[in-house]
Amino acid sequence: MQYMVSVIDDTAGLATPDEEAAIDVFNDRLQAEGHWVFAGGLAAPSSATVIDNRGEEALLTDGPFLESKEYLAGFWVIEAADLDVALKLATQGSKACHRKVEVRPFL
Amino acid sequence: MNAVDGREAITRAHHEEWARVVASLTRRFGDLDIAEEAAAEAFATAVERWPADGVPPNPGAWLTTTANRKAIDRIRRENKRGDRQQEAQLLYDDDPPEPLGVIDDERLRLIFTCCHPALAMETRVALTLRMVAGLTVPEIARAFLVQEAAMGQRITRAKAKIKAARIPYRVPTAEDLPARVSGVLAVLFLVFNEGYLATGPDTDPVRHDLTAEAIRLTRLIRALVPDDGEVAGLLALMLLTEARRTARVSASGELVTLGEQDRGTWDTALIAEGHRLVRQRLAARVAPGRYQILAAINAVHTSARDVRDTDWSQVVALYDQLAHLDPSPIIALNRAIAVAELDGPEVALAAVDRLEHRLADYHAYHAARADLLRRLGRSQESRAAYDKAIELAGNTAETAYLTRRRDQLG
pLDDT for B146-198, tens place per residue? Predict the structure, then answer.
């Protein structure tokens, strides 16, 4: 079973060197214990472009699809047997990156 | 066999077997929704058949087998294309359910799933009442003053989340157990309180089915963690409260306060068991948690043969200890009510008035003020406070009591 662990941020700053180091340690653990699928950090929401190609012509909009104080700063995709395992990992992830995280199962 | 016996047997079976049927189906099919629906269908079939055919020798086994068949029929209907591998797993299993061990594992699994911390508190309570206690959705909706459709939706969403997010169906590991048990206790305490002071214009003032179920489930948790002080404390608190149930509402349906209750009608067996638990916890010499302190307060009250014999200084000391753990305004309010007996209503009123900004919407705050003002002879202010308390109170017996008190003011 795979879960998306989204990192929710409300500050403009990127991860500090200490946070980076803690994230590396956490990532190593995910890999060693077989939970790792994928992970990545995202550039600021202001760097986003929204595309809508449902109509005749693709429409490009500068900026994120949702303007909000809190935004997605990065994510992990993890492999876990059930929600208890996923929540435990996400709890450690939140500590490592020093931000709130949201856990959501893949279909 | 007559129809009345059949109906009684069904009521009893529902009480005793509902959770076990839901639990064993959940384990087999890994789906709460299928388990709940099939269990409900099996009981509906029993309602049709038992009065005519007679009650089967082992009602629990009959219900489980019938529910299993209903569940398999539903899964087959939904998988018409016929996945052979899945089909092979769906053999009818007519063996009687396994005999119960010391600990009723099936129901415990169900409780821990329904009380999972990834679910909102109100959802946990609703789900526990539906899946474990077997209350219907309309009953739960009524108990919490929520529209039936909204309550149905809340339960449906919860079942969908449990399935989609794969909330595990098991008793937590030893490492997680203390935290998870404490989450379950919070749910059971809410269920008990709702039973003890039922809200809602059309419900009985005391819902014995809810208090009894909460006690039953707390006993089950206690069997799992016999050394947990807070589980023992909550059980003692419930028993000492339940012991006063019949004295608490008068024949005319009015709330009877602790001081005015006929103590001769209290249930001595429940009180003895509650006192035994409290003594055990005192002997353990471990710093007590909030349920243990609340149980100790109730032990002081139930030790007094007459309200005038109550050791109020002990009660206030216990509230001080509780306030240290939990500085909530409700605890402060209850402490002030005890202070009135020790230091008089004037001192107590000053303490109560300090809570106004935090408890202005809480009926018990206004009821406590009304009573203190009445004792101080400040009738007009007392009347206004009673009005406010009546406006906010949700329990029919309490409203009746407050109304009489107000109307007796000179």
Answer: 889 999 999 999 999 999 999 998 888 888 888 899 999 999 998 998 888 76
State the alpha helices, DSSP H only, in B312-355.
312-325, 329-343, 345-353
Which CATH number does the domain housing residue B63 bear?
A: 1.10.1740
Indicate the residue among B63, B89, B115 that finishes a domain: B89
Q: Do A87 and B118 touch (CB under 8 A)?
A: yes
Q: Number of A:B CB contacts under 8 A?
A: 24
Contact A87 B176 (CB under 8 A): no
- Partners of A4 in beta bridges: A77, A104
What's this model's pTM, rounded to 2 decimal places?
0.83
Q: Are strands A49-52 and A36-41 parallel, antiparallel or unpaired?
A: unpaired
Q: What residue of A is the nearest CA neighbor of B168?
A: A82
Joined together, the tokens standing for residue A105 give 């199962």
For chain A, domains (ranges, CATH) are 2-105 (3.30.70.1060)
Q: Which residues contact B363 (CB under 8 A, 6 or more apart)?
A: B388, B389, B391, B392, B393, B394, B398
Whole domain around residue B37: which residue ranges? 3-89
Chain A nearest C-alpha distance from B113 (Å) = 11
